[in-house]
């Protein structure tokens, strides 16, 4: 009698280099499957799985022979993506890709207002208005509005001009690093008073 010994080795692939991204800068596709070989299973029949260690900042998967790494919006930090390659006999090759997503300071944002607002003198109006910054605490975001008769309070801009005319209202939002502005033309008019002095009866 005798023995037949059949060797079945693990798949072998090229390890991927560490990856660095900038927050909100887009993802990346890494050509991968063509780097893998196996002594029994053909390249196209290898099973490849890719997973992210921290799905709150990185989405990782395998598609069309490529490793897809996609940082999530407004997310930064450091994590790893695990790559597992398996042949038809369950032999495994595994690798980890270190991923660093560097933070950027997002600019503040604000609601868009109409280009022009028309109002009557001595009739104040309130306009709902919101501003925010995804990277900065709300108490550290500053709002400035000119002229002085335009005041932000309790989620509204209150307009109460003292004279008729056409004005440019400038809204500035700053997080200490960057600033955005919005201009609105405010037309202040006065309603004509109609006095009936006499009524003639024919």
Structure notes:
The chain is built from no helices and 16 strands. It is mostly beta strands and 202 residues long. The strands form 5 sheets. It has a 4-stranded mixed β-sheet, with no helix packed on it. It is rod-shaped and about 120 Å long.
Biggest sheet record: 4 strands, mixed
Our count of helices gives 0
Shape: rod-shaped
Give start-end ranges of low-pLDDT stretches: none
- Mean residue pLDDT: 91
**Helicity range of the residues?**
under 10%
The strands making up the biggest β-sheet line up spatially as: 1-7-6-3
- The counted number of beta strands is 16
Order of helices and strands: EEEEEEEEEEEEEEEE
Distance between the termini: 138 Å
Provide the gyration radius in Å. 32 Å
Structural category is mainly beta
Q: Proportion of β residues? A: over 45%
Brief descriptors of the model:
202 residues, mainly beta, four-stranded mixed sheet, 16 strands, 47% strand
Topology:
Blueprint: E1 19-22, E2 28-31, E3 47-52, E4 58-63, E5 66-71, E6 77-86, E7 92-102, E8 109-110, E9 116-120, E10 125-128, E11 131-132, E12 142-146, E13 150-153, E14 156-159, E15 165-174, E16 179-189
Summarize the structure.
A hairpin with a 4-residue loop joins β15 (165-174) and β16. The protein has no helices and 16 strands. The chain has 202 residues and is mainly beta.
């Amino acid at each position: 009698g005798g023995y037949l010994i059949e060797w079945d080795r693990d798949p072998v692939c090229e390890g991927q280099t560490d990856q660095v991204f900038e927050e909100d800068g887009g993802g990346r596709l890494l050509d991968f499957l063509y780097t893998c070989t196996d002594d029994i299973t053909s390249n196209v029949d290898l099973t490849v799985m890719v997973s992210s260690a921290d799905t709150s900042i990185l989405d990782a998967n395998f598609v069309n022979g490529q490793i897809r790494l996609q940082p999530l919006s407004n997310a930064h930090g450091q994590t790893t993506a695990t790559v597992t390659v398996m042949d038809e006999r369950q032999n495994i090759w595994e690798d980890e890709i270190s991923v660093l997503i560097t933070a950027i300071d997002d600019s503040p944002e604000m609601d868009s207002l109409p280009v022009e607002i028309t109002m009557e003198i001595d009739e104040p109006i309130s306009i709902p208005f919101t501003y925010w910054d995804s990277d900065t605490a709300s108490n550290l975001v500053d709002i400035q509005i000119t002229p002085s008769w335009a005041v932000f309070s309790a989620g509204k801009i209150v307009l109460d001009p003292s004279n008729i005319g056409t004005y440019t209202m400038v809204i500035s939002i700053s997080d200490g690093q960057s600033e955005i502005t919005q201009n609105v033309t405010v037309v202040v008019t006065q309603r004509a008073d109609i006095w009936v002095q006499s009524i003639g009866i024919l």
